[in-house]
Design brief:
By secondary structure, the protein is an alpha+beta fold. It has three helices and five strands; from the N terminus they run E-H-H-E-E-H-E-E. The mean pLDDT is about 95.
Length: about 110
């Protein structure tokens, strides 16, 4: 039986994570957690909101954001890289445009 809450659409997705996160956690757990929280609260969430993004999920060392356009995703990634440059964390980011399936709690594709 098909679930009517499942939607298919074209979306731009920004995926990001912290390079060397496991090593950083081993070396300085408290400092790494504090730096990740500051990056998320002070830079990531405001930039995502300012560029019409929807934060789909946070992972231990990364995040996934959906945007309505590639331009929004790329502009957000540029702002993130600029504003996170002073962080002790190094973020890796990629943008993909493609069909996704939204099951109401997560996106796939």
């Amino acid at each position: 039986m098909a679930d009517k809450s499942i939607q298919r659409r074209l979306a731009a997705v920004l995926a990001a994570d912290v390079a060397g996160y496991t090593r950083l956690m081993e070396e300085d757990t408290d400092g790494t957690v504090a730096a990740w929280a500051a990056a998320r609260d002070d830079v990531i969430e405001p930039a995502v909101a300012a560029h019409s993004g929807r934060l789909v999920k946070l992972t231990g060392d990364g995040f996934l954001v959906e945007f309505p356009t590639v331009q929004d995703a790329v502009n957000c990634a540029i702002v993130l890289q600029q504003n996170l440059a002073a962080s002790s964390l190094e973020f890796r980011m990629g943008v993909n445009l493609g069909d996704i399936i939204d099951d109401g709690r997560d996106i796939h594709g």
